[in-house]
Amino acid sequence: MTTMNNLLILLMLLPMLGALLLVFIRKRNLLSRILSGGVMAVTTILALCLLIYVMNHKPLVLDFAGWRAPFGIQFVGDPLSLLLVTTSSFVVTMIIAYGFGRAEKRAIRYYLPSFILFLTVGVIGSFLTADLFNLYVMFEVMLLASFVLVTLGQSVEQLRAAIIYVVLNILGSWLLLLGIGLLYKLTGTLNFSHVAQRISELNDNRTVLIISMVFLVAFASKAALVVFMWLPKAYAVLNTELAALFAALMTKVGAYALIRFFTLIFDSYAEITHPLLVFLACLTMIIGAFGVLAYRDIKKIAAYQVVLSIGYIILGLGSHTFEGVNGAIFYLVNDIIVKTLLFFIIGALVYMTGYRQYRSLYGLARKEPFFGVCFFIMILAIGGVPPFSGFPGKLYIFNGAIENGNYIGLALLIITSLIAMYSLFRIFFVMYSGDEENGKEIQYNRIPRYRKGVIGVIAGAVVLLGIFAPAVFKVTSEATHLNLDDGVYEQTVNPHLVKEDDRQ
After folding, report:
1. Are 307 and 292 in contact (CB under 8 A)?
2. Quick one: three-class SS letters along 391-414?
3. Cβ atoms within 10 A of the Cβ of 275, count?
4. 3-state secondary structure of 129
5. In sequence order, what are the beta bridge partners of 61?
6. Residue 429, SS3 per DSSP
7. How confident is the model over 334-384, as pLDDT tens digits?
8. Which of 43, 220, 355, 441 has the greatest count of CB atoms below 10 A from its CB?
9. d(Cα 367, Cα 74) in Å, to the nearest integer?
10. Chain segment 183-207, per-residue pLDDT in tens
């Protein structure tokens, strides 16, 4: 058991060592790609093996230097964290396999693969840590790495997007640090389970509510929940692989933090906090719907699809029901994969045609039917059409909303899902049934076969996630039970803290 616990650190250590090694071999392009892709593939397999072990036994707990909570830094591999680590590692593997195209030599020279792995270290660390301050550290690792990635092209447009992105995220980080300080002053501990335990014993409702609002705003800025201004600009200027990376991971870490905190820690005052979450989710869905309808730029349409999906996830969380939270976790996993597919396809279309306006894609799918098929799969997954991967999560979120009486949120979920599909079908129909004569005249660049292979693998993953949804729901249900049911997480992860408090 101790050996299995120690394996948790490898999930961070492998990408960290890989990032450092890449610095020394940056002039060898092929070796750099093989090393970075191999490291992430091994990380994916390891995370999956640990997830299977945890599902058959109990969560893994790693206390650094043998210092048990609440005194030491603690990593926890529970179904929620390991499921997200597995999915994220798989996506990063696919992004590295996709490559950086004609600019690969320049990208590697500027340490781009290293910063991608450093970003992954921050993401994985955020999922695994069970310590408030360490969560802040991991968020800052992500911010630093992502800032470098956003500014890598050095264009004026990228720098403007980077400024907006960094300013809003720094403000979010300040609020997060403030919330951590207030929570530590109130509870005297930084460990998740210990904080949850002590908050449940407090009678100071007003202070806890204020602190929960601070965390809500902080994580909302990271997840693009209402505070979305940085997202469309940042995503629109990034090249394909980096846009896919940001869409798959950056907002999802913020969504994960909201799920973890507002099920485990701030669930005692759900009658106030969770209606607010539903309200913010509804606003986010409305903003996303207007965004996907208003623009003709396919990159900006894709960016607002990310905003929409965050609204769905938080709507499930805000229901504060088992099915709603379960659906939110499933949809979060689904969205990591689907949004990667979306940005790969959108980026490929821009690369082939040289245009970002979808009316310039006339007849393209007639020449490249492969992209038409993958695009169609992706649309149905985003719309939540059975049996594709978006359906099970939305169904559970739907049931959670009904159970909690969130009928406005329910209506917006249905309407915005249809709008999301409509905005993408506009592109699809132009690709297929646009002006055939104009389509014949299109001069476009061909996508390398290996890139088509990567897109095909992710499209296959979307289909398989829908088919094998019952197996994934076993993991998400266990994750929901562990975090939502009072005292289960504390008793499972740190039973010695519960015993000590009982003695007192």
Report:
1. no
2. HHHHHHHHHHHHHHCCHHHHHHHH
3. 14
4. strand
5. 76
6. helix
7. 999 999 999 999 888 888 877 777 666 777 767 778 888 899 999 999 999
8. 43
9. 54
10. 999 988 999 988 988 888 877 778 8
